Amino acid sequence: MPNYVQKYEGCWDVHFWLGQNASTDEVGVAAIKTVEIDDSLGGLPTQHREIQNHESPLFLSYFTDGIRYVSGGYESGYHHVEDQFKNWKPHLFHCKGKRNVRSSEVECDVKSLNLGDVFILDLGKDIYVWMPPDSGRLERIKGMARAKNIADVERLGASTVHILDDVEWNNDPTFWSYFGGVSAVKQVKKGQDDDDNYWKRLTEQITLWKVSDASGAAKVTLVAQGEDLRKDQLDSNDAFILDALNGGIFVWIGKGCTLEERSKALIWGENYLKQHHLPRWTQVTRVLESAESTQFTQWFRDWVDEKKKNVFEPLLFQVSDESGLLRVEQIANFTQEDLDGDDVMILDALNLIYVWVGANATHREEGSVEHGEKYL
């Protein structure tokens, strides 16, 4: 459960990441370390609570080759080159995602494979990247980059990478020997689209709550909902929780709050999740007064930042229609290389909304006007 600190011009972002099998003690240690980091930086950072398989676009943007999840504790990250291949146990990694590709370890069995995603079979000295015909272009690129990183960086060049593409994906004898032989390819199931749909729910469901901790147990009181949210409803002497549904939970801390109250922000956020029976993986972010991000301020119609009112950061979204399910995913820290020829991209440039259609986009994805109207 590592903590990750990223500094941008004029601000800090502190992320603490929780694995799906993290113990209660480990979660507690991560929270303590986050507070220590926060104190060392003067209580100024924006804090982000990240959960495995549900990380924020900002967190994912730091890992240009994609994230790889491994089994075991911190010891699993330390190996000696001279003995690392002794008694090696094969590992199979599933690379999944349209833009933010994650690779998580799965059971090394034919039932783990599917025809829609990329898989990495790690045999120690040899690493196989299995790319069936229905796998996505970006998943292939990220899968190959991930395998190369393992071989060149983690193994110091001691491993060889083998690419099984459209020609060799169903007939390589070494790869299939770990899954019951080449004939096992007939057992591989079709790809399933289980990625999240990033379209925001109706604005009317967004809620703002005031946090009260006077009795020692945090309680929340509804302040406003939907289009009634206004900046002047936030009091500098108090803390508030903004429930943005698919956009996550934000705990806003006023300038008049004590250091102790600042340190409790993420705890209040987690308590809110429990009280409202929300999924544990819901994003929780602490924001400080006068250091609010656009991800927070966008829910307040009258919000104008005097320091930034002439500055607008464009937003880029990817629209895909994989397996018939229309999905929209935000791309953080984007560059021109993020334009995917297989999909449609939406660029929010404040006064103009651009809809970019890739050459290989499907007919449904090419409904560009409809996508732009839905975004608005």
Structure explained in plain terms:
Residues 13-60, 100-160, 227-296, 330-365 form the Gelsolin-like domain. One of its GO terms (molecular function) is actin filament binding. This is Gelsolin-like domain-containing protein. InterPro entries: ADF-H/Gelsolin-like_dom_sf, Gelsolin-like_dom, Villin/Gelsolin. The chain has 376 residues and is α+β, with helices and mostly antiparallel strands. It has three domains: 3-54 and 198-297, Severin (3-Layer(aba) Sandwich), CATH 3.40.20; 79-187, Severin, CATH 3.40.20; 315-375, Severin. It contains eight helices and 18 strands. The chain has helices at 24-40, 57-61, 137-154, 173-176, 259-263, 265-275, 294-297, 368-375, and strands at residues 3-8, 11-18, 46-51, 67-69, 91-96, 102-106, 118-122, 126-130, 160-164, 207-212, 219-225, 239-243, 249-253, 284-288, 315-320, 327-331, 344-348, 353-357. The chain has an eight-stranded mixed sheet with strand order 1-2-3-14-13-12-10-11, covered by helices on one side. A hairpin with a 2-residue loop joins strand 1 (3-8) and strand 2. The longest helix has 18 residues, at 137-154. The radius of gyration is 23 Å and the shape is globular. Residues 75-82 and 194-201 have low confidence and may be disordered.
CATH architecture of the largest domain: 3-Layer(aba) Sandwich
Return the CATH topology of the largest domain: Severin
Major sheet: order of its strands? 1-2-3-14-13-12-10-11
Number of domains: 3
Our Rg estimate from Cα atoms comes to 23 Å
Helix content: 10-25%
Question: Please, how many helices?
Answer: 8
Write the CATH homologous superfamily of the largest domain: Severin
Q: What class would the helix/strand composition place it in?
A: alpha+beta
Distance between the termini: 38 Å
SSE sequence, one letter per element: EEHEHEEEEEHEHEEEEHHEHEEEEH
CATH hierarchy, class of the largest domain: Alpha Beta
Extended strand count = 18
